Amino acid sequence: METTNGTSFNNQKFTIPVVNDVEQQTSMELEAKDDFNYSKRSQWLRAAVLGANDGLVSTASLMMGVGAVKQDIKAMILTGFAGLVAGACSMAIGEFVSVYSQLDIELAKMKRDKQRGENRETEEEEAGKEGEKESLPNPLQAAAASALSFSVGAMVPLLAASFIREYKVRLGVVIGAVTLALLVFGWLGAVLGKAPTVRSAVRVLVGGWLAMAITFGLTKLIGSSGL
């Protein structure tokens, strides 16, 4: 069958637009990148919340333990401050060593890959490797974040007890402030970890209470025995 100008319909070529497919693929790549960045940020934030919770529980437990045998506010504050400094240094050093070991492993792996004869790398591959180098863990950054998060949590019982002279009132205020902070940290950790919020908050709260109660009770027992 031919048209009036002698051109056959069978010889005509039809093209299918692919603009929508390209846009869809680009959109999917951007969404995947955003999900990766959000996941990475969530991991850092969750680690910071866990570090703050560690500082909160350990420092509060130390202060409660000393408060079990000494009613002096100075002894309690000095104990809490010593716990803050020691815990922050311990967290920083531990995180630095751990992340530095991970960095050594990643660098060794990249060096082995480079020595396998990848001499003809394209520009995209080179750019990808530069991106991998930029995404490598930073030991100093990790150590500073751990020390800071621990210190933030440890400041809660310290500030709660700093200006209260009355012994029983001071213990009650410390317990109340720590309880509120435990609920907040438990809720934040559950949200960032996509876990049930109520159950996680209660679990963190009960764990913190147990730590303070055990430290208070054992120190009271040892102190009353005259050791």
Automatic annotation (TrEMBL):
Keywords: Ion transport, Iron, Iron transport, Membrane, Transmembrane, Transmembrane helix, Transport, Vacuole. It comes from Herrania umbratica. This is Vacuolar iron transporter. It catalyses: Fe(2+)(in) = Fe(2+)(out). GO terms for molecular function: iron ion sequestering activity; iron ion transmembrane transporter activity; manganese ion transmembrane transporter activity. One of its GO terms (cellular component) is vacuolar membrane. Signal peptide: none annotated. It is found in: Vacuole membrane. Belongs to the CCC1 family. Pfam families: VIT1. Residues 111-120 have a biased composition (Basic and acidic residues). The chain crosses the membrane at residues 75-93, 142-164, 171-192, 204-223. The keyword Transmembrane helix applies. One of its GO terms (biological process) is intracellular manganese ion homeostasis. It is a multi-pass membrane protein. It comes from the Eukaryota. Vacuolar Fe(2+) uptake transporter. Residues 111-136 are annotated as: Disordered. Its main location: membrane.
